[in-house]
Specification:
The structure is a homodimer of 600-residue chains.
Chain A lengths: L5 H20 L4 E5 L15 H6 L7 E5 L3 E5 L4 H7 L5 E5 L8 H7 L4 E4 L6 H13 L3 E4 L3 H4 L12 E2 L2 H4 L3 H14 L4 E4 L2 H8 L1 E2 L12 E4 L4 E4 L7 H9 L2 E4 L4 H6 L7 E3 L6 H4 L8 E3 L4 H7 L3 H28 L7 H13 L4 E4 L4 E4 L23 E6 L1 E3 L2 E2 L2 E6 L5 H18 L2 E3 L4 H13 L10 E3 L8 E6 L14 E4 L2 E4 L3 E4 L2 E11 L2 E8 L17 H18 L5 H10 L4
Parallel strand pairs in A: 1-5, 3-4, 5-6, 8-13, 11-12, 13-14
Antiparallel strand pairs in A: 1-2, 2-3, 7-9, 8-10, 10-11, 15-18, 16-17, 17-20, 18-19, 21-28, 22-23, 24-27, 25-26, 27-28
Helix pairs in contact in A: 14-15, 16-17
């Protein structure tokens, strides 16, 4: 394991010293910092990557808590190994969220000798602040908003300047007017005069706009308010080209400066009601609403709910884009198989080659997340991204995991394959087969309308649990349409927060795995569309239709461990893979695919 | 279907007329009535069976809402068929709770032209009232407590007078002092000066007392308060015999009149904190607490949580009592099989015979719920109880379902078997096998510490869902120790409220089913103990150990539908049934059991 070099160590110390001096000045005995931006996003512009700048942890999640003596980073199961690696040698203590007997950041703070806790009200939802205030008041601690980090972050990258563009209705299936009309209908039913949109993908979806402000996430940084007659987009005005401005204005959308969202909210008329999602609206924005007795809080809010149900055009497009994504992957895996024995392929060069194949595809814009190209023990880190510091050379041995996805004008993709580079041990074969069983068991499920992700999760986990193994993350997540690759709702997890009822036309991943720290990682991930299965006296049953296509390594399977039903699913899936991908392949690629999709 | 006779119809009209007149006098446009008592119990003394008296519905659950024009009864899936039958011909509209698009009672009231809604603050938890108040205030409606029913219920049965008795430590495994000591430790950690116990089984468990006040539930009607030095039992004083009083006083328990709980709470010292479960404490009691800033709300509260983890003595006793219960059932089923072909057996006479066999068993006190003895279509009503009005004669044909349980000094039991009385159709065989598959699939589960009932439920439901069928109830519930047959936590359900993490030494049922209204009902229910399975790098895994023993009808199984693993479970279970029951059987009974537990 690498440790920090002396220069970095000094720098880290200096940053924390500056922060603590500031905290002292403000009378704060602790400061709590989430890994997000004022839109409460998962993926953020560099401008908002405060935890990365302060601590060196590059994951997308987590919370950092600083007291005068201690620093703690709270991370989920998917990022804990990465955090351990990246923070090795620093005084930052890592807390794995959700683990038995590990306190949450707030619980931990309650037990510390601190009185006043500082936070930035732009970076916390009103709902989180309410919970924290309650908890802190039980322990005679107070919470106070202070913006500290910008004061010590010299050379902070500015907010990104990129122009927006319109997302064509041939892709989106619904015009902006139609979407606004549908949203206003719900507002009417909810007796809401206004609807505040804070999350970047909801705004991009509603207004059919896209941008380049955030890597891997084609959204512009903005706020939105929908009122009965007008809609309002709050965005740096130079980011809206004249042509786009004209089109937006034609459907009643007024453009305002980004920061004027606060004055706009402050000027809401007396008695006017405003609807928003308290889990997605910052304390800072909430405080701008003059009459808080007229707020209507909905989780998820209108656009988030509508966005989750893909329309027929989005579904048609998504399926097409997933075929192209499958073709890119197939070409990549064939190239890899042909060349790995020659040596000289590394994780980084493989990632580069994968990108080349993706970029060849029509409508490709950028990856939907940093590709996880992980050989052997690197794959035990669920979100591992290769770099020149840790780049492994591939050999004809062991598992290689590739989790990649693309942003295409006609969809967003996310797929993982784990392939054996040569012969693998019986134990590895068994574990690969257990992961596959989990994948298939959930893919085979028929479930009643009303079923939630928290109900479904165990179907994928069961074969793995039966072997005394667990994966410390969820089983699946929603996927946006040329938007966030992790789009909520829906979600499939053991957690009670996976409480969204599955509906037809939702799109999710299924991705169980086995992760052995220091050894290897196995994950098999596909995307699925929820479709109607059958309607009986007992209700409406649904099922998952696979919509991502790439062979699953037959050579890594122990067929004795699969049931007949599981084999059937795999054979049908492979038949379909060949059927949809082969029209785009040359003769020798077809031959290769035929072999990879043979019946077992 | 029967309809009400004219006399009953008049009586019903008269009762509702009186209630509506009273409502008018108090300025109430609606009145809402839950099916419970001031201890928020499921099973209640006749004194509190208000909904039964008012409407004729005899189920244990439900909520009745009365406006000047309408009456609605909200019932869960287990009781909806029964309600339809019992309320046939009345103007009472039935709402099936939890069904898609069916409003809750509160949602329905919000849409009605009502302004002030009346309720009895003794019969609603503070937590329900808070939710209702919030919801109503959004719709400009108010809530006001009025006791109305006692004013119109002439000849109301008095509160039951039965004396309490002590539950011997040889059964309970822990003395009252030990239990009080453990509870006080938690109180100390929670900084609670007092702990208010409102639920009858928690009080009976803590103080090791039992009673006869409620049919099928051996508890006395009382309240409890535990303080650092003293504990207080609020109970009609004549119910505590001198000897029992002496024993209780020796461990620091003071006896007070039942109704003095209110004055006791009112006299709490300033700044003294009191812990209680807001979901189990009535609004009426909550209002008696002088300093509401010092309340500590916990769901579930201390005794409820401790009671759910059975101690080794309780487990040992429970296992022994379940063997005796199994012997009674076995004798019953053998008698039935021998005699059914002769004719003349009815549901009622079978129920009578079952009771005889149960009463022969050592330590038997009473049934743990009214036995469900249901032939053919009657079994489609999940909580059907035969009566002279609907008694069916058994024939050598179709399914017969028996769901029975006993209260024994050394445990509480609950078990269901569905048996074919003669040949059954291929379709019935298939459905019986699907229910069995569901039962076994959940029984086979290995699950990580932290898994909740809402996560597990689908394992039992999956084979049934795969056939496009569903059962409209939960899959399992906790069972008390010589206490409530439905003891929460834990629970196994699709519902997010099944959120208790399973722990070792909990006891639950597994009871999937298929219910075909007008045709038949199938349910297979056993009781299970949660035990440790294995501890690995990934955590502590648990599994279910069956602790109730009775053959499952092999003749109703289609073995082709069972996997090898499922057959193994069944064969192992049957082997164990023979092993534990045969020492208590005579030669011919043993021979019969051998056949019933043969390998498949």
């Amino acid at each position: 394991m690498e440790t920090l070099n002396l220069g970095k160590e000094m720098e880290l110390k200096k940053k924390f010293r500056s922060l603590r001096t500031l905290m002292q000045k403000k009378g704060l005995s602790a400061y709590i910092l989430p890994n997000t931006d004022p839109h409460l996003s998962e993926y953020k512009a560099e401008h908002w990557q405060i935890i990365k700048w302060l601590s060196g942890f590059t994951g997308a999640g987590g919370q950092l808590v600083v007291t005068q003596e201690k620093v703690g980073l709270w991370v989920g199961g998917t990022e804990s190994l990465q955090a351990e690696k990246e923070l090795q040698g620093t005084p930052i203590k890592i807390f794995k969220k959700g683990k038995h007997k590990i306190p949450t950041a707030v619980e931990w703070l309650c037990e510390q000798d601190v009185t006043k806790v500082g936070y930035n009200s732009k970076l916390f939802s009103i709902s989180t602040i309410r919970e924290m205030k309650n908890k802190f008041s039980e322990h005679n601690k107070t919470l106070e908003s202070h913006v500290l980090l910008p004061l010590i972050w010299k050379n902070r990258p500015p907010l990104p300047p990129y122009p927006i563009y319109l997302h064509d209705v041939k892709f989106t299936g619904k015009s902006t007017s139609e979407k606004l009309g549908e949203i206003r209908e719900v507002m009417h039913d909810e007796q809401a005069d206004h609807y505040l949109l804070t999350t970047l993908d909801d705004i991009a979806w509603t207004f059919n706009i896209r941008g380049h402000d955030v890597k891997c996430w084609p959204v512009p940084i903005c706020y939105g308010v929908i009122s009965p007659e007008k809609a309002h987009l709050f965005i740096k005005e130079e980011k809206v080209p004249n042509e786009e401005k004209k089109v937006l204005e034609e459907v009643g959308i007024e453009i305002h400066p980004y920061n004027s969202i606060v004055t706009h909210l402050k000027k809401l008329g007396e008695g006017e009601s405003i609807l928003f999602d308290p889990k997605k609206t910052s304390k800072w924005l909430f405080d701008s609403i003059p009459d808080q007795s007229k707020t209507i809080e909905k989780t998820p809010a209108i656009a988030t709910k509508k966005k989750a149900i893909k329309n027929p055009t989005e579904i048609k497009n998504m399926k097409k884009c997933l075929i192209r994504d499958g073709v890119a992957l197939l070409k990549f895996f064939r190239w890899l198989e042909t060349n790995v024995t020659r040596g000289e392929i590394t994780e980084l060069s493989a990632a580069e080659k994968l990108k080349e194949f993706q970029e060849e595809q029509e409508n490709f814009v950028e990856p939907s997340f940093p590709s996880i190209v992980a050989y052997k023990e690197h794959a035990a880190m669920m979100h591992y991204v290769p770099s020149s510091k840790n780049n492994s050379e591939l050999k004809s041995d062991g598992f290689f995991l590739i989790d990649s996805g693309g942003q295409y004008f006609d969809g967003t993709t996310d797929i993982t394959r784990t392939i054996p580079l040569g012969n693998i041990s019986k134990k590895k074969k068994r574990e690969f087969t257990l992961v596959l069983k989990g994948h298939i068991q959930l893919a085979l499920a028929k479930f009643l309308k009303g079923t939630k992700g928290v109900n479904l999760d165990i179907l994928a986990r069961k074969p793995i649990w039966n072997a005394g193994i667990d994966y410390k993350c969820g089983t699946g997540h929603g996927v946006g349409f040329f938007l966030n690759v992790h789009e909520n709702p829906p979600g499939i997890n053991q957690d009670l927060s996976s409480d969204t009822e599955f509906e037809e036309q939702m799109i999710t991943t299924i991705e169980p795995g086995i992760y052995k720290p220091g050894e290897y990682g196995i994950r098999i991930e596909n995307m699925f569309l929820t479709v109607e299965d059958t309607v009986t006296d007992f209700g409406e049953f649904m099922r998952f239709e696979p919509i991502s296509f790439c062979p699953i390594s037959i050579d890594a399977i122990d067929p004795k461990l699969l049931t007949k039903e599981e084999k059937n699913w795999l054979n049908n899936y492979h038949e379909r893979v060949f059927e949809v991908l082969s029209p785009y392949l040359d003769k020798s690629e077809k031959k290769w695919l035929k072999k990879k999709t043979r019946k077992i």
